[in-house]
Amino acid sequence: MNKKEWLKCQNSFTKNGKSWPTLTIILFDLLTMAAGLYLTKKGGFFSVVAVFFFVIVFLHAYLLLHEATHCSISHSKLLNGLCGHICGWLILIPFLTRQRSHLLHHVWAGHPENDPVNKAIIRYFSDMDDEKRVKTEKIWRSWLPLFTLSDRIRLWRETIQNKSIDSTGEKQQKNSKFIYCYGMSYIFIGVILFKFNFFLNFIMVYFVAIFILFFFEELVNMPHHARTPLLSFSDKALPYWHQCKIAHSCRRIPIWSYFFILNFNYHSAHHVFPKAPWYRLPLLHKKLLTYMPDLNDEQKKDEVTWALSNRKQSLCSIMKNYVDVADTLKPE
Ligand SMILES: [Zn+2]
Ligand SMILES: [Zn+2]
After folding, report:
1. Nearest CA among 148, 100, 160 for reference residue 124
2. CA-wise closest residue to 269 among 258, 257, 280, 281
3. How far apart are CA 291 and CA 134, in angstroms?
4. Which of 29, 67, 195, 291 is 20 to 30 Å from 270 at the Cα level?
5. Closest ligand by atom to 228 CA
6. What is the rounded distance in angstroms from the CA atom of residue 203 to the CA atom of residue 68?
């Protein structure tokens, strides 16, 4: 695909601005969350069902936050920001830091240093001694969401240190203001739950659902950039129309791919058209196939099949490209 073809496709999805699939998902999530709260209040076995409901809502929150990151929820910047912050608040992601980090991931996709996700992974492997390697491999094989957890910690650390925001005073203040709002509203909700004797029950259900969310986040994210080539440190940013080279898509699973993960499996199409809303990705993926029929080959595995085969293998072999770069950074 060249720039002219890319622009033609890009224009085709920006013309039609209806976002009813996103609105339907938001409405569904509000109802599911209300049902989840009701079941949590009832306690006992109902709390188990509530966890299931919350996991669906949290998974959607993660994906809608991703949509808000790309301003794909609405044409209004305010609505995108509002949705991003609410979703981030719900699932413990500082929206502004995540937005900046994720947009750099798209602009510098595949770059070992300028893509913050790649940089963090490479640093993790370059700090690795034999003992850490053994522990990492054990965690990987046990399906625990190591990468998701360390990414959350990175985002909060950067937010608190104000590292993620360019050092212009105004933006730093904005970041601090939002951390303050997040913190105060967590305390406020905690006090309300405590007053209504609902605190312990809710906290238990909430954290079990959050842990399961971390598991799903890792399940859907890992296949996208594992075993993809990395650029050199001196390389320039790849144009969007060439970003299929550094991203993988997964095979579609009926219902799951559309309704549960909002077409997140079409990651190559998402890298080529990052502003396209989630419900346009299947069509854009089909268009991409007309330019790059080879893309079909990478779609042999869905996320679950990918995890089932790769969780049995060594993480260092799956992430060999990252490990190779990390090895060059280790002191002699
Ligand atoms: Zn990506
Ligand atoms: Zn994205």
Report:
1. 148
2. 281
3. 43
4. 29
5. 1
6. 27
Distance 143 CA to ligand 1 centre (A): 21
pTM, rounded to two decimals: 0.92
pLDDT in tens, 168-180: 555 666 677 788 8
Output the CA 193–ligand 2 centroid distance in Å: 35
* 308 CA to centre of ligand 1 in angstroms: 21
Largest CA distance in the chain: 61
Query: What does the pLDDT look like over 221-261, one tens digit per residue?
Result: 999 998 888 999 999 999 999 998 888 899 999 999 999 99
CB crowding 210-240: b at 16 or more within 10 Å, else e:
bebbbebbbbbbbbbbbebebbeeeeebbeb
User: Residue 274 C-alpha to ligand 1 middle, in angstroms?
Assistant: 10
**In contact, 12 and 18? CB cutoff 8 Å:** no
Residue 199 structure tokens: 């605190």
Q: Ligand 1 centre from 201 Cα, in Å?
A: 36
CA 189 – CA 198 distance, rounded (Å): 11
